[in-house]
Specification:
CATH superfamily of chain A: 2Fe-2S iron-sulphur cluster binding domain, sarcosine oxidase, alpha subunit, N-terminal domain
Strand content of chain C: 15-25%
Helix content of chain A: under 10%
CATH topology of chain A: Ubiquitin-like (UB roll)
Order of helices and strands of chain A: EEEHEEEEEE
Helix content of chain C: 25-40%
Number of helices of chain A: 1
Structural class of chain C: alpha/beta
Shape of chain A: globular
CATH architecture of chain A: Roll
Radius of gyration of chain A: 13 Å
Number of strands of chain C: 23
CATH class of chain A: Alpha Beta
Number of helices of chain C: 18
Largest interface: B-C, 53 and 48 residues
Strand content of chain A: 25-35%
Distance between the termini of chain C: 36 Å
Oligomer: heterotrimer
Distance between the termini of chain A: 30 Å
Chains: A mainly beta (97), B alpha+beta (374), C alpha/beta (459)
Structural class of chain A: mainly beta
Number of strands of chain A: 9
C-alpha cells in the first residue's frame, strides 16, 4: 500500500506476530505495519471484520494492536523501539493482556 | 371514555414506562407513551442492568417477595420479547456475588443479610456467605484482597440498553403511540378522562399511569397522589469489549454479553446528571482492580453519571388515586429487575382499573405517613 | 512536570504552539501537551523530524511551521509530547496520560487547541483495509516520508484533497484517478463570496494547485462511490464505472475535534455553512466555561494561518487575565489580520460543502465504524421515535466504541435530522464525558481519591 521515498533513518528491528520486520527510527507502529505491507492489524470485536490503519492521526482507533503484550494500543501514536513485539488483534481483547 | 384519544396515557418513556405500556398493550389497551427528549434525565440509559435479588427487602419484607416474583418471571418475559421482536435481551440468571475486600466489609455484609432474613414475614430464599476459597472456585480471577462475600443463585442480569430498545420496538409493533419531546406540564381530570398538557399539544386518555421516575414527585400531586423522592447520582465506568472472563455478575461489576465490563454502584447526593466526580470513578476503578487484577490493563472507554430514581425509603410506590380514579403511580428504583412485574403484573391491574391489594398494598405511598405518625 | 500551571495548552498544532509561545514569553508558567510523538499538529505534522528533504514536495506553506515550532521551543513553555489529555473539567483540572501513567494537573487557564479531524466519509466499503483518509496519506508523507504504492484513487472534495494530490504528484506518485464529489450546484451559493475570495490568498494558491494537478491525473465527477473487496480493497466503483485500486484515499473537508471541549462542558452550536458543531466563543476565543478557551480549527475551521493567530489572541487574553500588569500588544492588528485570513473562507465553505449523499448514507453502509452500526439501522430507529443521538446511542450502541463518536457523531446527527426533517442544530450531538481518550482501568485507579469520594462507593 505504501513505500518509502528514501531510506532515511536508522533501521529498527521489530516483530509482527513473531515475524521480523524492518522499521525506521521515527516510525510509529501503524506506519511500520503499512510499510511492511501488512494487510490488516486487527479484526473487529463485533463482526470479526479486518481493519487496517485508517486516519493515522489518533481519532479512528482502527490501528489498535498489541504492543509488547499490552492490547488495544493505538498503533499510530506509539513510536517503534528496537525489539518491540507487535501482535495483530483478533476480535475482543483478552482480559489481562 | 371512547371519546378519549387513548385508553391509557403512560407518562415516562423509560424502562418502567415502556414495560408498563407493553403490558397494557397486551391487554388490548390503546396506549400512548409521553416522553421527554434526547437529553432527558434518564435513568434507563444509566442503570447497571442487574436482575437482582440478594439484599432486597431489608426494611420492607414484602419487597423481597415482589423482587423474587419478577426474577422468576424474567426468563419467560425475555423469551416473549424475543419472539415478538427477534431481539435477545441476553437475560441470564447464573447467580450473583457481593464481594468484600476486607474483614470489616465482610462482617457488615453478613450482619446485613442476617438482619434481612430475620425479618418477620420475609420470603425464604437462599443467600449464602462464602469464604475466599469457595468464591475462587466460581470466580477464578479474583484478586488476593477478596476475603469473601455472599452468593445468591437467583441473581442475574440482562443487556438493559437492548431491553430498552426491545420494549420500544415491541411497543411500536403493538401499536403503542410514542411521543418524544412531550414533557407533561399538567394533568387535569375532565369528566371521564384525563387531559395531559404538553408543550406539543394536549393528549386525552381514560387512565393515566405515572412512570416518570423522579418527576413523579412533580406529577403525582396533580392527580391526588404522592411520590416522595430522594434522587441520587450514580456513576459507572465501562471498559472496552473483552473476551468472556466472568461468568457471574457481581453487584458492583459485571461483564455484558457484548464483552464490555461495567463497574459501578456509587452514590452521591447530586441531581446534576451532567457532572462527573473523577475521584468516584477512580474509587470504582481501584476496587474493580482489587477484585479482578487482570482488569488493570483494560481500557476504559466511557464513564457516565445518571440520577437514580429513588423513593425516600428506596422501595417502590404503586398507588391508585382515590380523588382521581384511573390515575396510578408506578415508581421504583429497580426498573430492570422489576420490568417483568411491571409488564406482566402491574400493567394488567391498571388495564382492569384497580390494583390488586394482595400484591401491592405494602408499596402504597401511604406508608410514609404511617412512619411519620409512628 | 508540576502539579499546577498558569496555563495548560492542549495540542501543539499552529494554535497551540502560538498560544504557548505568547503565554510563556509573558512569564506565565505554561505547559503544552500533545499526544503525537512531535509538535506541529496535523497540518505541520513531523515539522521537526520529517525525512522529506526536498522542500518543494510539501510546499512552502508547510515549512511555515518550522518558525512556529522553534518559537515555542525557545519560549520557555514546557512541551510534552506523547501526552494524551483524556479529561478536562470546568475547574480546569486536566487529566493526562504519559507513558501509561495518568495524572491530574491544575491550570488557571486552559487553551484547547485540539484542532480538527477529517469529516466522516461514510460510503459502502469504507471500513475495508486499503481505504484511508486523505489526511492519513498526507501524514504518511509528511512525518514518515511514505507514499502510496500501487493503484491509488483519491476521492472527495475540498482544498486539502487538491493539496494532497499536488504533493503526491511532486513526489512522483502515480495517481490513477481523482473522483471529485463536489456537488456541481455548489457554485451558485458560493458566488456571493467570490469577491472576498478573489482578494484572499486562497485564490492564488488554489488556482495554482488545480493547474498543477489537472492534466496529470484523470479527474471524474462522482455522485456515488463504493469501495469494493472482500478482505481488502480491490476496486473502486463510481457512477457505473470501475477502477482497480489498492488504495482509496477519502477526504471531504475537516471539522472541529470537539470531544475534549464538549466533555469540559463548553457550549457548542451548529454551523450550517460548515456542517459541523463548533464551540460558542467570545472575541478572545473564551468559551462558555470560565477560564477555558478554544483556539485554532477547533474553534471553527479557518485554516493553519488563522489558527496561529487565534492561538495568539487566546494567549494574550490569558496573559491579560493572569498578569494584568504585563504589557500586552494591541490585538487589533492581529484581529484584522485574522479577518483577512478568514476572508474567502465563505466561498470555499460553500463551494466545497460536501454532498448530502456522502454525509447521509443509506442501507448497509456503516455509520459507526467501532460498533458496526449501519445507516439503515439508525434511520429505522429514528423513525421509531428516537429523536436524538443520545437515545440512539442507548438503542444501537453507535458512538459507544473506542473512538467515542469521532467517526460517527456527525453522521448519526445528520441521519436523525434527515429522518425527522429538522436541522442538525435541533438534533444535537452526543453527550461526551471523560475519558475522551481511553486510559486503562489501572491508570484511573491510580488517581487521587478524597475520603468523601471513597465513601460514595465503599459501603
Amino acid at each position: 500500500m505504501f513505500k518509502r521515498l528514501g531510506e532515511v533513518g536508522a533501521a529498527v528491528a521489530i516483530t509482527v506476530d513473531g515475524k521480523p520486520i524492518r522499521a525506521r527510527v521515527g516510525d510509529t507502529v501503524a506506519v511500520a505495519l503499512l510499510a511492511a505491507g501488512i494487510d490488516h492489524c486487527r479484526t473487529t470485536p463485533v463482526t470479526g471484520a479486518p481493519r487496517a490503519p485508517y486516519c493515522l492521526m489518533g481519532v479512528c482507533f482502527d490501528c489498535l494492536v498489541t504492543v509488547d503484550g499490552v492490547g488495544s494500543r493505538q498503533g499510530c501514536l506509539v513510536p517503534v523501539r528496537d525489539g518491540m513485539k507487535i501482535e495483530t488483534q483478533q476480535g475482543k481483547r483478552e482480559a489481562g493482556r | 371514555m371512547a371519546a378519549s384519544d387513548y385508553d391509557v396515557a403512560v407518562v415516562g418513556g423509560g424502562l418502567v414506562g415502556v414495560a408498563t405500556a407493553w403490558g397494557l398493550a397486551r391487554e388490548g389497551c390503546r396506549v400512548v407513551v409521553l416522553d421527554e427528549g434526547d437529553r432527558a434525565v434518564r435513568a434507563s440509559r444509566g442503570n447497571f442492568a442487574l436482575v437482582w435479588v440478594q439484599s432486597k427487602g431489608l426494611g420492607l419484607a414484602p419487597y423481597a417477595g415482589w423482587t423474587i416474583r419478577s426474577s422468576n418471571a424474567w426468563g419467560g418475559f425475555a423469551q416473549t420479547l424475543k419472539d415478538e421482536t427477534g431481539l435477545d435481551v441476553a437475560f441470564q440468571r447464573p447467580g450473583g456475588f457481593h464481594l468484600s475486600l476486607s474483614e470489616r466489609e465482610l462482617e457488615v455484609r453478613a450482619t446485613n443479610l442476617k438482619r434481612l432474613h430475620n425479618q418477620p414475614g420475609i420470603v425464604d430464599y437462599r443467600t449464602e456467605m462464602m469464604d475466599r476459597s469457595q468464591i475462587a472456585k466460581m470466580l477464578p480471577d479474583i484478586g488476593p484482597e477478596v476475603v469473601g462475600g455472599s452468593f445468591c443463585p437467583l441473581d442475574g442480569h440482562v443487556n438493559s440498553l437492548r431491553l430498552f430498545r426491545t420494549l420500544h420496538t415491541a411497543n411500536k409493533a403493538r401499536g403503542v403511540t410514542y411521543l418524544p419531546s412531550h414533557r407533561v406540564e399538567s394533568i387535569t381530570r375532565d369528566g371521564d378522562e384525563f387531559q395531559l398538557v404538553t408543550a406539543h399539544g394536549t393528549v386525552s386518555a381514560g387512565k393515566v399511569a405515572l412512570a416518570a421516575g423522579n418527576a413523579n414527585m412533580r406529577l403525582a400531586p396533580m392527580v391526588g397522589l404522592e411520590a416522595p423522592m430522594k434522587p441520587e447520582r450514580g456513576q459507572i465506568v465501562v471498559t472496552e469489549r473483552l473476551r468472556p472472563f466472568l461468568n457471574h455478575p457481581v453487584v458492583t461489576l459485571r461483564q455484558t454479553d457484548e464483552g464490555t465490563v461495567m463497574i459501578g454502584d456509587s452514590k452521591e447526593e447530586s441531581t446534576d446528571p451532567t457532572g462527573l466526580t473523577l475521584g468516584v470513578s477512580a474509587t470504582e476503578a481501584e476496587r474493580a482492580v482489587r477484585m479482578f487484577p487482570l482488569l488493570s490493563r483494560a481500557n476504559v472507554v466511557r464513564t457516565w453519571s445518571a440520577i437514580r430514581v429513588m423513593t425516600q425509603d428506596g422501595f417502590p410506590i404503586y398507588d391508585e388515586s382515590e380523588t382521581h380514579p384511573g390515575a396510578f403511580t408506578v415508581c421504583c428504583h429497580s426498573g430492570v429487575t422489576l420490568a417483568a412485574n411491571h409488564a406482566l403484573t402491574v400493567a394488567p391491574m391498571i388495564a382492569r382499573g384497580s390494583l390488586d391489594k394482595s400484591l401491592v398494598a405494602p408499596f402504597s405511598a401511604r406508608r410514609f405517613h404511617v412512619q411519620e405518625a409512628g | 512536570m508540576n502539579a499546577s500551571y498558569d496555563v495548560i495548552v492542549v495540542g501543539a498544532g499552529p494554535a497551540g504552539l502560538a498560544a504557548a509561545s505568547v503565554t510563556a514569553r509573558a512569564g506565565l508558567s505554561t505547559l503544552l501537551l500533545d499526544e503525537n510523538p512531535g509538535v506541529g499538529g496535523q497540518i505541520y505534522r513531523g515539522i521537526t523530524s520529517t525525512p522529506v528533504s526536498n522542500r518543494a514536495i510539501l510546499g512552502e506553506d508547510y515549512w511555515v511551521g518550522t518558525a512556529l515550532a522553534a518559537d515555542a521551543k525557545t519560549s520557555g513553555a514546557e512541551i510534552v509530547n506523547g501526552a494524551t489529555v483524556w479529561s478536562l473539567d470546568p475547574e480546569r483540572l486536566v487529566g493526562v496520560s504519559i507513558a501509561g501513567q495518568a495524572r491530574l494537573i491544575q491550570a488557571k487557564r486552559v487553551i484547547v487547541a485540539t484542532g480538527s479531524q477529517e469529516r466522516p466519509f461514510p460510503i459502502p466499503g469504507w471500513t475495508l483495509p486499503g481505504v484511508m483518509t486523505g489526511g492519513a496519506a498526507q501524514t504518511a508523507l509528511k512525518a514518515y516520508g511514505m507514499v502510496p504504492d500501487g493503484h491509488t484513487v483519491l476521492a472527495g472534495s475540498g482544498p486539502l484533497l487538491w493539496l494532497l494530490a499536488a504533493q503526491l504528484l511532486r513526489a512522483r506518485v502515480k495517481l490513477d484517478a481523482i473522483l471529485d464529489t463536489t456537488p456541481r450546484l455548489n457554485w451558485v451559493r458560493a458566488l456571493v463570496g467570490l469577491p472576498d475570495f478573489l482578494l484572499s490568498p486562497y485564490f492564488g494558491k488554489g488556482l495554482k494547485l488545480l493547474r498543477e494537478v489537472r492534466g496529470k491525473v484523470p479527474i471524474f465527477h462522482a455522485a456515488h462511490i463504493e469501495a469494493v473487496g472482500t478482505d481488502r480493497l480491490t476496486e473502486v466503483v463510481f457512477d457505473g464505472r470501475r477502477l482497480p485500486a489498492d488504495l482509496l484515499l477519502l477526504h471531504q473537508g475537516v471539522v472541529p475535534n470537539v470531544n475534549l471541549a464538549m466533555a469540559a462542558g463548553v457550549a457548542h452550536e451548529w454551523n450550517e455553512r460548515q456542517l459541523c458543531f463548533q464551540p460558542v466563543l467570545d472575541a478572545d476565543f473564551g468559551s462558555s466555561v470560565p477560564g477555558i478557551a478554544v483556539a485554532g480549527d477547533g474553534a471553527g475551521i479557518g485554516g493553519a494561518t488563522a489558527a496561529a493567530e487565534r492561538g495568539r489572541i487566546a494567549g494574550f487574553a490569558a496573559v491579560r487575565a493572569l498578569r494584568p500588569e504585563a504589557s500586552v500588544p494591541d490585538t487589533q492588528a492581529l484581529r484584522q489580520k485574522l479577518q483577512r485570513e478568514e476572508m474567502g473562507r465563505a466561498f470555499l465553505d460553500w463551494l466545497y460543502r460536501p454532498a448530502e449523499s456522502f454525509r447521509r448514507p443509506t442501507g448497509d453502509t456503516v455509520a459507526c465504524r467501532c460498533e458496526e452500526v449501519t445507516a439503515e439501522q439508525v434511520r429505522v430507529t429514528a423513525r421509531m421515535g428516537c429523536e436524538g443521538p443520545n437515545q440512539m446511542k442507548a438503542f444501537l450502541r453507535c458512538g459507544m466504541g473506542p473512538c467515542q463518536g469521532r467517526l460517527c457523531g456527525l453522521t448519526v446527527t445528520e441521519l436523525i435530522a434527515a429522518e425527522r426533517e429538522v436541522s442538525p442544530a435541533e438534533v444535537g450531538y452526543y453527550r461526551l464525558r471523560p475519558p475522551v481518550k481511553p486510559i486503562t482501568l489501572g491508570e484511573l485507579a491510580s488517581l487521587p481519591i478524597a475520603e468523601a469520594e471513597r465513601k460514595a462507593v465503599e459501603r
